[in-house]
Amino acid sequence: MTDRTDGPLAGLRVLDISTVLAGPLTCQVLGDFGAEVIKVEHPRTGDAFRSHGAQKDGHGLWWKIVSRNKRCVAIDLSRPEGAELIIDLVRTADVLVENFRPGTLERWGLGYDVLHAVNPRLVLARITGFGQSGPYSSRPGFGTLAEAMSGFAAVTGEPDGPPTLPPMGLADSLCGLTAVGAVMMALWHRDHNGGSGEGQVIDLSLLEPMMCAVGPGVTVYDQLGTLQQRNGNRSSSNAPRNTYRSADDRWMAISTSATSIAERVLRLVGHPEVIDEPWFASAAGRAAHVDLLDGYVADWIAQRTEAEVVAAFEAAQAAVAPVYTAADVINDPHVAATEMIIEVDDADLGPMRMQNVLFRMSETPGTIRSTGSALGAETDSVLDELGLAAERIAELRSLEVIA
Predict the structure, then answer these.
(1) Among the four 42, 43, 168, 169, which has the fewest Cβ within 10 Å?
(2) 204 shares its domain with 262
């Protein structure tokens, strides 16, 4: 654990009043790189994300990651006294991240006009399912809906199977990481290049980053009138690209996005003759002959163990990777050597391993200073820093405005 001022975002203060994943992930990344993040939750229910996923001794393990490096306070924003506390916090903040339905902050007296008047430098990131305007803006928005409506589910799965949703918070995660960039752009505009010194509102939906990740399907349909079909693990634009079972019952993933890599793979598996075929020179041509190419690769891998396959592909400078479980990830020597997974101390559960900060910076590296803490763990200390008297804090607690 290191001092809170470490990192490139040291001195930046972020209010995280969002729930579940997209907004909290945004604030996790900002906190990982030195921002002081104050996590605000409802005093009685807390963030629903506390109960998401696997639990140990009553503690959510995903929560421990996404709420790391945050000071957890419990304030009821819907109460006038709670809204006043948020306004007091906004006076000292650079960024506020929220993901309530449009109009909710305004109903609580915390609309951007109020917040901007209190702190003109504030950047307000508003994350919703469908954005702040438009016919769907008032709908409940969840990542699953974005994964469905973005076109992702329609092209994911086996050709004869149903549309397939991801088994993790994909849309929320993409949106959260996108919001990090949006926040930093807004801060740069505020403070550089002749900016006005004022903040702004970021309107970000779960749907748009997911649409970006899906690729050019909309443009292809617009220009060609065709729709991408479900291809399982195959690519509609290149081959061979699939997962293949080894002799020791391990799955291997192969990508040949570059023609030179495709050539190396086919030479390796004993079929250099196809390289001279006119269709082999283009990704589209190889995709049109996917059954042939997949068969060659699958037959070769099926006769060899995972270790033999990896060694041969490395020697040929071709691209292959085992299909890992979490157990494989945590025991991989490269992951260990580069500290992609590190061990941190948790106040409730002791030592635990989790993903490290997202990237390495030579001069201002990020750090994991603490894991996700208990509901309201730092309510008193944060309010004390605002100048509230102990008697007032006790009164607010008795009124259940804070916890």
Answers:
(1) 168
(2) no
Query: What is the residue whose two structure tokens read 């149903």?
Result: 162
2 in a domain, yes or no?
no
Low-confidence ranges of the chain (pLDDT < 70): 1-5
Reply yes or no on whether 160 is catalytic.
no
Q: Which long-range contacts (CB under 8 A, 24 or more apart) does 46-55 make?
A: 46/74, 46/375, 47/19, 47/20, 48/19, 48/20, 49/19, 49/20, 49/21, 49/24, 50/375, 52/20, 52/21
Rg for the chain (alpha carbons), in Å? 25
Nearest to 31 by CA among 89, 70, 66: 70
**Residue range of the domain that includes 265:** 251-322
Mind listing the pLDDT tens digit for each residue in 204-244?
999 999 999 999 999 999 999 999 999 999 998 899 999 99
Kindly name the residue from 16, 76, 172, 346 that is annotated as catalytic. 172
Q: Contact 8/361 with Cβ under 8 angstroms?
A: yes
* Residues 274, 327 contacting (CB under 8 angstroms): no
Judge whether 167 lies within some domain. Answer: yes
